[in-house]
Amino acid sequence: MFDNGDIGVSWDCGSGLHLIPGHDSFRTVPSLSDKAVEGLLAVRDTARVNMFSLNEVAAVADELGYPETVTAIAENKRLAAHFVLTGETEEREGEKNAKLYGS
Fold first, then answer.
1. Which of 34, 40, 50, 66 is the most interior residue, by most CB within 10 Å?
2. pLDDT tens digits, one per residue of 62-74
């Protein structure tokens, strides 16, 4: 966010722009953190549970010391299941994706 309240956005294609809260319409797309993904992959590697049984995945992640994975599953089971199915850390809905820049 900039001093004037604008939010800087950097698109996947390399261009960028400023969003003006209250004027521009936008939403953030939830994504899994690197630590949450690391925990999901660690659970998968144990071969102890069905990866679609997210409650069991969370229990094993907790045992293995991945609290970020437990939190990610609790907060967004759909996104965790999406990762298990596709390996993608965010759900794409046919929109161009952007990352915020500036702080």
1. 40
2. 999 999 999 999 9
